[in-house]
Sequence to fold (212 residues):
Amino acid sequence: MTNRTHPSEVLLADYASGALPTAAGLTVSAHLSSCAACAGKVDQLVEAGGVLLSGLPDAPLARGALAATLARLDSPAAQPAPPQKGLTGVDLPAVVLAVGFGPRRWFGRGAWVAHTKASTAHGWRSFILSLPAGGRLPAHGHRGLELTAVLQGAFADDTGWHGPGDFVTADHAVEHDIVVSAQGRCVCLVSTQGPFLWRNPWLGALRPLTGL
Fold:
């Protein structure tokens, strides 16, 4: 399916410059893995940034900077942890497997969430959210941004239908009710600033169980 919704130019620029927190960047990375158009834009932004840096005047190094850099080069490199195994029935992007995630936390009927091990700096966190065919995530808002990369299936909210490869952005002004297509399970990678703001306060009781 062709991607229909994408990250904004500002979000892609922040990603290219390294300004996005890790948890937010993870969801953008997941989208880039399936969207050649956005990946190409990021490559162009990175290249443009390199050209700008090359035109800056030279600056003197701080005392001891060269020695510290050489010492790091001489030290043995840390071995990266092997990628985590995936989840049965879910095709996860390589970037998510590399970061890793916790166990599935089940809630409702056939719904589960698995939080990734990405940094939670600046209040950001990311998680894999899976809802069954015809399922629903009740109306909720957000304290800041919510970034969603659709990995499998499709869901609808006030902005329309979103399928595999789509990227959906919501902010503190958005409150939406998520409804999953009857054709199959919907799996998304989601990054948010803080927990959901549920319209129904009783749903806040689920937070210790789900972290949502």
About this structure: Confidence is low (pLDDT under 50) at residues 50-55.
